Every structure is written in structure tokens, then in C-alpha cells.
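hey so i finally got around to running the thing on that chain from the lab meeting. sorry it took forever, my laptop kept dying and i had to restart like 3 times. anyway pasting the input first so we r on the same page abt which one it is
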Amino acid sequence: MTAKSAAAAARATVYGYPRQGQGRELKKAIEGYWKGRVDADALRATATELRRTNWRQLAEAGIHEVPTGDFSYYDHVLDTSVMVGAIPERHRAAVEADAQDGYFAMARGTQDAAPLEMTKWFDTNYHYLVPELGPDTVFTADSTQQVTALVQALALGLTARPVLVGPVTYLLLAKPAPGVAADFDPLTLLDRLLPVYAQVLTDLRTTGAEWVQLDEPALVQDRTPAELNAAARAYRDLGGRTDRPKLLVASYFDRLGDALPVLAKAPVEGLALDFTEAAAANLDALAAVGGLPGKRLVAGVVNGRNIWVNDLEKALATLGTLLGLADRVDVAASCSLLHVPLDATAERDIEPQILRWLAFARQKTAEIVTLAKGLGGGTDTIAAELAANRADLASRAGSALTHDPAVRARTAAVTATDGRRSQPYPERAAAQRAHLRLPLLPTTTIGSFPQTTELRTARADLRAGRIDSAGYEERIRAEIGEVISFQEKTGLDVLVHGEAERNDMVQYFAEQLTGYLATQHGWVQSYGTRYVRPPILAGDISRPEAMTVRWTTYAQSLTAKPVKGMLTGPVTMLAWSFVRDDQPLADTARQVALALRDEVNDLEAAGTSVIQVDEPALRETLPLRACDHPEYLAWATEAFRLTTAGVRPDTQIHTHMCYAEFGDIVQAIDDLDADVISLEAARSHMQVARELAGHGYPREAGPGVYDIHSPRVPGADEAAALLRTGLEAIPAERLWVNPDCGLKTRAWPETRASLENLVTAARTVRTELSAS
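ok and heres what got predicted. didnt touch it at all, straight out
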């Protein structure tokens, strides 16, 4: 096909779409099902209607080929485990008794069976359920969910493309099951898994699928020759089968690198590549392999992870370069639109001109369709759209919101000394022990306590004007009093105020900093039914006034025990926002760090002796390629130190991280120079404690003993057993006892019981230590 005919044939598509619905109908239906208010038929009906609505929106917008299989009740990797029959033994009976309840048991656990481990999906804030595999794993095909969705889409008269997690990525994301040797490599199961994928592909072909997309984002990471050979074998096997649909192998989030020649040679009909995060690298690599003659190329030229309007002319130039490198060039977002909110037009509190800078899923869909039209018919066919896009880009670039000379001058004046504590850790530790007088194995929580219906109602009433600020603040004071009283009665050693006034750990601060925009309906799935509204980091950042001092000092006035000040760190403020794309991330991080530094100093001046600056996103934001790690970790750790280094030696700085592979960043954790770090460890069975010990981490640490992402209550014996495991790696004088994460999403009954058990466990192990 010539470049001209490839352009004329260009079509618009997407890899996936937000699942929740305009009003988060899916969240409400699932949580209603868990509570017994919604039955299974009603839950399925909600899911069916949401899929239908999404497909119709896409088709009406001009998308030629809609995705199926991207919808999930909880997580698409968990769906893949169900599809291939990789059900953990502890959940098998529950799945056999009731497939839906067993599915949720794997995700959330039961009182008798722990859930699957949860961690971050590459460098996003989406969490997936980690497959558990072992040498005895037997795979069996179950394509029910994938076939059902495809049948529904085809019945609507749509051209549909099922989307599956690819077999190589699935195995690379997996971990050894409990009881399996830690050095077991799930990739050794590839030959056992491929026939199951082949059966699913056959089922989809029989149902009517012309194309099936197999997502292989793991191939954009650094891969060994053995792993690349496995990818070659996988697609030689699947591509060589005759009773299958056409195969589109998709990659995203970074450059494909050494995997591109492997996939280019494979007997598959198409590749999908990211031309936003790695446009130049993927373009060069495509040219180096001689393009994709005879194949379909799906070009991800619209950023699927951020919310800024696309530069249409730049994207068209990229698409034009791609013509001639493939038999057919189609237009898409760089990845699934799962990672952005649904519709910017729902926002009523953002100025209309600023709103034109933003593109959520529906607006990105329109951009994709416009680009496909322009690629096929020439720029004259989209002249009006291009003119409007140029005006929107110029409006943003010239806005006073994006540039504050005072902020830039302060940032430019930062020196290396500003990021160093006044004394080394051993001297600080001695001063802190003398000042705080905490027991061995001190107990604490991560920060938040349950956000009750009453609290959420009070916030909604304040926004709607049904109560005034005085009434709202009285409710917050009462909640803080209850939280402090409970912690004292339970016997926790370092308390928190519970964050009753906070809607979200990033949004709360963003709403009080200049340069941020907040949305009302910009919900994005983080995991399961947990949705967040990432704020939009649109301009230069500063802090007009103190943000947390008032409520922290009020809580401290209610107790003689230390109350932690609680802040969200600069890297997490970036990672869990839609960050500006018009300056380096390091510059933005430094601006946020200086604003938070002012807050840290004000907390200390108000008498707060323990200050926690959470950085759960430090590992999440790590670039996918090792060669890009040093630059990122240098500015990320510098930003944390810039936030925290201005305090006295006897002020104890904590940080917190959760649900990530910490072994990759232990040196960076050390470089933060925090006095205490708390980390997720319950689901991973204290793996992080061993990683810290292997590194020789010299400071205090609290690997979690209570998994807060499950409703189950861990017994005191279970928590004590985890503590003893932690003590094998971390000396008692440096070990803290805490949950994995904040308690915002939990209910009060399970929170009370779990924390009481946590304190009991700490006391039991203290007694054992004193007797030994």
C-alpha cells in the first residue's frame, strides 16, 4: 500500500475507556452488591448498560473500532487470571461455589483467605492484582467474560476488537505463589500458557472477532535476551495458528526498544506503539527495522495519561512520518483512556477558557477522530479544528496562571545546603529518643481514619450551603476528638488526628496551593471501587497560608502523646495529579517542595514533634527504563529533602510508601534521609523488611502488619507473626508497628478490631523480647 492509500485508509480507535460511568454507577453497584443491597442480576445489568453506553459514545464520536474486554468489575489483570484459570488454591472453593463472589474474594480477601497482592500498574497510579503462580499451576481457558462482551458489542452493529493482557506481560507481572520458592520464574510457564491463549483466541474468532489486541506493555521495560526470546516464541506460536483472528500486539508507556525487531518479525498482523512518551525513539526504531511492510500500525499520538489538549499539528506531522512505514496507519491514544476522567464538559467550576485547555476521555476521542480525518482527507478537512487548537495552545502558554516570577526566583535560589539536615541521623536519633520517650516497637497508624458517611455528608452539605463553616468545623472537631480518644484507649503510642477534614491526600493540598485546578467530576479509577479526582497542576506553585497546622495543633491539645503532622510529599503531589507538560518535572517538584517546606516549618513552630511526609508514589513514578532512573531519583529525593531538611534534629521526620516494588529503589529510600519509614508489607509477607536489611538500611522502619485494602480483620497472632518476621531483618530498636496504609477506606468496626489486635501483637512481642 502506498503512503497515500495508507492515509486514506486511516481509522480511529482506542484501547480502552473509563469503566465507572458518568456518575460512578459501577462503584455504587459493586459496593451495593458487597453490602447485600444489590443482587447479582442487578450488578450485571449495570455493567451491561455501562458497556453499551461507552460503545455508543465511542461510535457516535466517530471511532471505527471499539474495544471490548477493557471493562472490569475490579481489575483487568485479575480478569486475565480468571480467563486462564490461575485461581489460588485458597480461593478455589469460593470461585467454584459462586464465580462472582469468588472473584471479589481474590480481590478483597475473606476472613479466612488473604487476597492477592496488589501493586502499581507500571508507572501509573492504577493498581492491579498480582497473579500467583508456581510449578504446579495448571491453566485452563475460560473465555466467558471476553466472549460475552464481544457478543454484546456485535449485537449493537459495531466493529469490535477484544483487548487482552498478553501472555508475556501476564507472566512477567506474576509472582511465585505462597509456599513456592522465591526464585521460581513464572515465565517458565509460557509453553503451558500459550495453548490456553490460543483457545481464547479461537473462541473469539468463532464469535466474530476479526482482530484481537494483546497488550504487552512489559516489553517497553528493560528485558533480558531470554525474555525477548520468550516473546518471540509466544508470537511465533500464536501467530502461526490458523484458527485465530488477526493479532494486534500493543505496547505503551515508553519506547519498545529491543522488543520492536522481535515483534516486527513475528507472524502477527499489526503493532500498536506509543508516540507520545517515546515518539522519537519509536520512530527511529521503526525506521531501523525497515518499517512494518504488510502490517497494520496503530499510532498512539494522543496522550492517554494526561489531560491537556493535544497539539494536533504536531501529531499530524508524526502521523505523516509514519505513512509509508506500514501497510495501514490508524490513529489512537497512547494507551487505554482508563487513566483519565470521562468528560471535561461536566466541569462547571473551571473557567471556560481554561476548560478549553483540557481533554478528558471524550475530548481525546474527538481528537483521535479529527486526526484520523485529517490524515485521510488532508488538513483542509480539519482546518477549523486546527485553528481552534492553535488558539487553545496559545491561550495556555500565555496565561498568567502558568508563570509566577516570585516562585521562579525562589526556586532558582535553592542551594544544596537547603536539602541537608543539620545533623547526621545517629545524632538526630538520640535527640528524638530523648524527646519523644517512645517504647520499644512503637505503634502508630499511617494517618487517615475511616471517612464515614456522616463526614462525607457534612462536606457535601457545606458545598451545597446546607450548613455553614462553623457547623462543619464543629463536626470536624468532634470527629478528631473521637479519633484521639480511641487511639489513647487502644494504646497507640504516636497518634494522628485522622484527617477528617481531608477529601483526598493530594486534592486537599492542591485546593490550598496556587497553580492547581480542582475538578468536581474528574474521577479516575485507582483500584477496585476506589476512585480519585486527581487535581490539575496547571501553573507555578506556592502556599498562600498554612494548610494543616490548625487541626494538627487542635488534636495535640487533646492528648499528652505525640500527634503526627501529616503531609503529602512533592513527588506524590506530582504523580497523583495531572502534571503540567510545559516544563521539566524536576522544576515542578522543586516548586511543590518549597511550598511544603513552609508547612513543615510552621508545624514544627507550632509544637509538632513528629511530621510525616508521605511519598507512596516515589517508586510508582520511576521510569520504566533503567537508564532513565538516575536523573529521576536525583530530583525526586532532592525534592523530599528540600521539603523536610529545615527542621531541628529532635523533630522526627517520617515518610510512608505503599503497594510498589521497593527493592528497585532501596538506595533512593536511604537517600531521602527520613528518620522513620513505614511501608506496605502484609500482603508481600515482609518482603520489604528483607530488602531493607539486604541494603543495610540504617534508620527506623515500620513494615505494615495490617493489610488495609481488605475488609478482613487480622488476628493478634497473625500480626505478631509478621512482627517476628520483621524482627529477623530489622533490629527491635529500629522497628515500628503500623498498618500498611491509611484507614480512610475502611469501616470503623474492622478498624477498631484490627488496631486493637495490632497493639496486642506489639505488646506480646515486646514481652517476648524482654524475656529473651
